[in-house]
Specification:
Blueprint: H1 6-9, E1 42-44, H2 47-56, E2 59-66, E3 69-80, E4 83-88, H3 92-99, E5 102-112, E6 115-127, H4 131-144, H5 149-153, E7 166-180
Antiparallel strand pairs: 1-7, 2-3, 2-5, 3-4, 4-7, 5-6, 6-7
């Protein structure tokens, strides 16, 4: 039986632990209790709120498979046409995405540990080859970053121009979102 940790499971984790102590009793034997308002206010986000979070943010963390497990990188993105658009320079990320195109994108807004919202998009990565598709993706990326080429390509550890970058989209298969106190 897996031990339940009250800090992670909140009031529902108040079971008897395998070591015989109650979940509200510390290792030193002292008891503690949750005060009013300390319980988690976790809620699922409706799809409309998930879409708004994706629309109003520009940076996410793209997770993909690699031979050793998972590889996660920050990306700048634009949400439009019901997909996620992004770009990348040639390198490890592109090699992995071409081999294993199933990805997840995490986008979050964190005020503090008790006030946050996050959305996870699961989908399929597709490299864009048709010029009209790449033009549309570049246009949405530029609009999302208020026309600033520097902002679109900044912060990636490389300085690939948007015209030279590999342009891609993530075709969304599933969107889930959660929030605490927001």
């Amino acid at each position: 039986m897996q031990e339940r940790i009250p800090e992670l499971n909140g009031p529902t984790g108040a079971n008897i632990r395998p070591n015989g102590r109650s979940a509200a009793q510390g290792r030193d034997g002292h008891s503690w209790r949750l005060t009013k308002g300390a319980a988690a206010m976790l809620r699922e986000l409706p799809l409309s709120e998930c879409e708004q979070l994706l629309l109003h943010n520009r940076i996410g963390r793209l997770a993909m498979r690699d031979a050793e497990g998972a590889y996660v990188v920050p990306i700048s993105y634009a949400f439009g046409d019901g997909v996620i658009y992004g770009h990348a320079a040639p390198g490890r990320k592109i090699v992995l995405l071409r081999r294993w195109p199933h990805v997840a994108l995490l986008v979050d807004e964190i005020q503090n540990l008790a006030r946050w919202r996050s959305v996870i998009v699961r989908g399929r990565w597709e490299e864009l080859h048709a010029e009209e598709d790449k033009f549309r993706a570049r246009a949405l990326l530029l609009r999302a970053f208020e026309g600033s080429l520097m902002s679109v390509t900044a912060g990636h550890g490389h300085r690939t121009s948007l015209s030279d970058a590999i342009i891609f989209r993530v075709v969304i298969e599933e969107v889930t979102g959660r929030s605490e106190h927001l």
